[in-house]
Amino acid sequence: EKKEAILILTARSNWTERVEGLNAGADDYLPKPFEFDELKARLNAIIRRKDGRTTDQISVDGFRLNASYRTLTTPDQKEFRLTATEFRLLQCFLRSPDRVFSQDELVETLYNIERCPTRNVVQVYIARLRKIIGGNK
Length: 137
What we know:
Low-confidence stretches: none
Order of helices and strands: EHEHEEEEHHH
Number of helices: 5
Helix content: 40-55%
Strand content: 15-25%
Mean pLDDT: 82
Shape: globular
Strand order of the largest sheet: 3-4-5-6
C-alpha cells in the first residue's frame, strides 16, 4: 500500500484533466488560483484518508451532510436530497463554519471558468439552503 499522498496543483482547470489526474493516481486535484485555507483543508482530508479516518459525513450543530447520498439531515431528523450545486455549496460552508466567503470565492468553488454563471445564481442557491436550514434552526 502506498504511503505517500498526491495532490495535483495546476493552472489547468478543465474537468476532464481533473478526472485524468485522479484516474492516474492522484488523491486530490486543486486548480489555481486557490485559497490557502482550501489547500490546507484538502491536505488535512488526504491525511485523514491515509490514516483511515475518512467519513462521508460532515456534522455541524446537529446537521449532517452525507456525501454518499447527497443528503442533509436536520437536527429533527428530516432528510433533504440536495442538488449537486446545493451540496457543494453547503459542503463548503460546513467545512469552514466560522469563515465568511466572498461571492467570488463561492462562484469559483461551484463552477469552472467555462461555465461561470451570473452572481445571482449563487444567491438563489443560498436562499434555497436557507429555506431548508431556516425551518430547522
